[in-house]
Please model this.
Amino acid sequence: MPLITVAMPVYNRQDVLRRALRSLELQTMEDFICVVVDDASTMPIEQVVDEFDSRFRYVRSDPNRGCTGARHVAFEHMEGHLLMNLDSDNELFPWTFERASTYLSQRPDIDGVAGMSLFDNVLRTTVPGGSRLVTPDYYASREWPAWDSHEMVRRNVVEEWLTKRQDYYSADFHFWFTFHLKHSSLFVDEPWGRHHVDGLDRITNSPDPRRFRDLVVFVEEHRPLVGNAPCVPLDQWLRDAWFFLRRNRRAKEAAVIRDWMIERGLSTKGIVRGRVQRRLRQSFAEAIGTTTVAPEGL
Model:
């Protein structure tokens, strides 16, 4: 079934980019390409990509669009049947392509598969029972668990993503929200890669105001399609988005979120208190060691 395409946006980050590309070079399945989209970097990126073989393709994108916009550019260069997103500061384990493509070959009823990701050599979350089939009905009916994962999807999913708005800056949630509303995915309790969160240049730390605009763009795109249809993860996202905007004193954008919340029968009462309680529960879980340390060699 492969060829596999890896979509990788990058802004500067020469050293960590090499680490990510090496993790692809070590894959046991060699039938892939990696599209590295240079999102208007201020330092040379093409020379890093040129250190690797012809499977690694360099594409320059100007002006700077953000990671989500750059991902769209990579989607346009997709070849083959399958796609996996990978950030330039993360890496995959050698067996990831082989495991993911095998699941998709064996399961024609799914359009995506996801394995777990380590953070600082720790598996923060696991999939109960070893695997979980997430259908659109399952997704819409319950709060989304914090599964830290690496996902592979079929080409038809990417073609659908390409029809969506392309002016997001850093809002990859909209890809997965679109995916889960229509497609089934299998989550498996296997380690497939590492997330590195120590970089000071991570886009989640960016002060760029386009991060606030993303939330409005999401509402503009998805509110006409979803309206007040039941969807627990969407309600979860709206509450978190409203809290994020209020905390950053973005009253205008927060009002857009609140308007859709009202349509969906959601209240802002208790959100601040609930967020504080959630952080306390997470800190307590980490303090008593409910996370799982990865086995030696991973």
The longest strand covers residues 185-195. The radius of gyration is 19 Å. The chain has eleven helices and eleven strands. The CA atoms of residues 99 and 192 lie 9 Å apart.
